[in-house]
């Protein structure tokens, strides 16, 4: 990353599928050491935004930059700057947590020694008795801790999260939010796609609402200017219902 490049920069982005404009003039940036939550109804363009940053979808117009790299023309280089946590974490059930981490790190780069891995597991809150267990019996929350530990070991500047608290109970959600805050404290730029406004309000610096492929509201989630959660929740619910209708 160049000294002046933002970890994530999107300007006036347009993406079209089958004559349908999915992203329509989207502009968004995420600075180092900050968390931005992107909310919106189904079909608003949240997943397409992540796919464009990962280089899986190419834009028709606009600017997309990951640490100064265009993922549309240099997708491999851009993805080396990113740790991506999808809604359903893809791990190998027949391997142990340590073996999964070693394999994923061998593919993507990062510290592969057992000592470094178990240290990251401990930081992620994965209990010691689970380190050498196969993942077949792991809950979603435990799988996420493995994935977050791998992200920590890769030491990349960007973390993308897709519905990370979906299906988690309140305790697991609180644990996950604490992990995200720890990642942010390391200077990582975090972009989180979510439907969970209350969870986003706990950890995000700003919350952006996406509707019909563009940001329609951008509010502060922390500090003196933070929004009224209940009022915003009501507006978000109405907007989501209108978009789904």
TrEMBL record:
Keywords: ATP-binding, Nucleotide-binding, Transport
Domain of life of the organism encoding this protein: Bacteria
Keyword Transmembrane helix tagged: no
InterPro entries for the chain: AAA+_ATPase, ABC_transporter-like_ATP-bd, ABC_transporter-like_CS, ABC_Transporter_VariousFunc, P-loop_NTPase
GO MF entry, a single one: ATP binding
Keyword Transport listed: yes
Domain spans labelled ABC transporter: 8-237
The name this protein goes by in its record: ABC transporter ATP-binding protein
The organism of origin for this protein: Novosphingobium guangzhouense
